[in-house]
């Protein structure tokens, strides 16, 4: 409404809208006018608030610009002061030398072979003329040079599954009796029965934490991310170790190696002892054991790097120096019979192996990896913060899938292959 402002009274508003007999109006009409007046005031308040907000934002921006400008000017002034001081100091030294050598300079006019020494100057070196730092400043390469660490290849081979529960369970078929078969006319049909057994694994927790000073977080902007990466690396290594061979008791996961079946193939399975069996023969036999258990074929075989290196350099025989070409090399990967990938990891001890159909091994995670940062005990007074990494989950190989995994050591397995 034109001319309406914060100082407009209700009486003035009535004049603006042409009402001169307010007291004579019905109560309903009076209420409408009062409400209309209040609505105009509300519009005005909103307009002022928006303008005030806009002004505050503009003022804030201008203050920031002034502050940045002031800092830049201050830097230039300080630089000018430094340069000026250097020039004055150098000029003063020249003046002092000229005054001190006034007589010699006068004699130089008549004797062109005479020389004047203003100052004896030594050779400048980094060692002799520099202290308190490096000139030029060192070129610091980005990142933190971390200690070499095991890749979590075994953990990455497990099938990922999420859960919101603290217990992972499954129903296993056991105690199967009877078989299907042909049935003659009028005869009893073949009956099959089995038991249903519920099995489970509990979710376990793995943790790690590290303390750092708040100065490290403030002064080195990449330090926090690097430390978190280190925590994650060590945390997952701990998870992998117990996922590999944990016994399932206490806070330990039940590892795949723990539930895997032992290597049990002998020469009898090949109708004759195998002469001078090698690592490849053991892996072939392990695959046979998995197939005989109706578990398909091994997708992965994990060996120690030393055993893989030995496998690569092994010859056909003592007299035949050709390399064994049973394995297929595709890039950096080794494949047995085109199906079983041989993976190198220091997680497996030298001389041992574990292989299996890893489509049947699950890493069940609850909430995944969680990072927390905070104070503990006297951290606050000592300017420390605690970075905590936590993982909760379980490793599951269902009851009837455990024959899909075979474990053993090469010496014992080779000895079995040489027997019937």
Which descriptors apply to this entry?
seven-stranded mixed sheet, hypothetical protein PF0899 fold, 420 residues, 11 helices, four-stranded mixed sheet
Summarize, please.
This protein has 420 residues and is an alpha+beta fold.
Structural features, described:
- There is one protein chain.
- This protein has 420 residues and is α+β, with helices and mostly antiparallel strands.
- The protein has two domains: 1-121; 204-417, hypothetical protein PF0899 fold (2-Layer Sandwich), CATH 3.30.2320.
- Helix content is 38%, strand content 21%.
- The chain contains eleven helices and 13 strands.
- β8 (333-336) and β9 (340-344) form a beta hairpin.
- α9 packs across α11.
**SSE run:** HHHHHEEEEHHHEHEHEEEEEEEH
The percent range for strand residues is 15-25%
Distance between the termini: 107 Å
Specify the structural class.
alpha+beta
What is the molecular shape? flat
Biggest sheet strand line-up: 5-13-10-6-9-8-7
Helix content bin: 25-40%
CATH homologous superfamily title of the largest domain? hypothetical protein PF0899 domain
Question: Uncertain regions: pLDDT < 50 for 5+ in a row?
Answer: 79-90, 118-122
Major beta sheet, specifics? 7 strands, mixed
Tally the helices: what do you get?
A: 11
Write down the overall mean pLDDT.
80
The CATH class assignment of the largest domain is Alpha Beta
Number of DSSP E strands: 13
CATH topology of the largest domain: hypothetical protein PF0899 fold
Radius of gyration: 42 Å
- Count of all domains: 2
Q: Examine the secondary-structure arrangement and name the CATH architecture of the largest domain.
A: 2-Layer Sandwich
């Amino acid at each position: 409404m034109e001319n309406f402002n914060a100082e407009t009274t209700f009486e003035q508003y009535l004049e603006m809208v042409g009402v001169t007999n307010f007291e004579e109006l019905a109560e309903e009409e009076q209420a409408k006018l009062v409400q209309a007046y209040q609505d105009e005031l509300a519009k005005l308040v909103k307009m002022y608030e928006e303008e005030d907000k806009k002004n505050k934002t503009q003022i804030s921006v201008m203050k920031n610009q002034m502050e940045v400008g002031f800092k830049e000017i201050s830097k230039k002034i300080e630089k000018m002061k430094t340069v000026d001081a250097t020039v004055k100091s150098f000029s003063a030294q020249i003046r002092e030398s000229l005054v001190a050598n006034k007589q010699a300079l006068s004699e130089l006019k008549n004797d062109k072979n005479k020389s004047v020494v203003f100052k004896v100057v030594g050779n400048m070196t980094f060692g002799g003329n520099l202290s308190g730092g490096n000139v030029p400043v060192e070129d610091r390469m980005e990142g933190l040079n971390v200690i070499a660490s095991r890749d979590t290849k075994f953990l990455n081979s497990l099938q990922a599954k999420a859960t919101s529960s603290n217990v992972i369970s499954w129903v296993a078929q056991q105690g199967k009796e009877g078989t299907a078969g042909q049935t003659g006319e009028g005869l009893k049909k073949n009956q099959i029965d089995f038991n249903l057994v519920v099995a489970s694994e509990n979710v376990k927790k793995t943790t790690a934490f590290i303390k750092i000073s708040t100065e490290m977080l403030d002064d080195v902007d990449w330090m926090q991310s690097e430390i978190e990466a280190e925590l994650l690396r060590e945390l997952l290594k701990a998870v992998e170790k117990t996922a590999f061979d944990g016994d399932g008791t206490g806070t330990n996961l039940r590892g795949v190696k723990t539930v895997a079946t032992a290597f049990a193939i002998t020469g009898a399975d090949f109708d004759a002892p195998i002469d001078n069996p090698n690592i490849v023969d053991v892996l072939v036999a392990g695959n046979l054991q998995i197939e005989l258990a109706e578990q398909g074929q091994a997708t992965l075989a994990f060996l120690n790097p030393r055993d893989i290196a030995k496998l690569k350099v092994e010859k056909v025989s003592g007299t035949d120096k050709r390399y064994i070409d049973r394995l297929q090399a595709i890039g950096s990967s080794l494949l047995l019979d085109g199906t079983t990938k041989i993976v190198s990891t220091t997680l497996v001890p030298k001389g041992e192996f574990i292989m299996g159909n890893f489509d049947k091994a699950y890493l069940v995670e609850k909430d995944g990896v969680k990072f927390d940062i905070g104070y503990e005990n006297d951290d606050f007074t000592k300017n420390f913060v605690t970075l905590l990494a936590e993982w909760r989950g379980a490793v599951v190989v269902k009851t009837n899938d455990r024959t899909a995994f075979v474990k053993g050591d090469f010496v014992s397995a080779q000895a079995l292959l040489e027997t019937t």
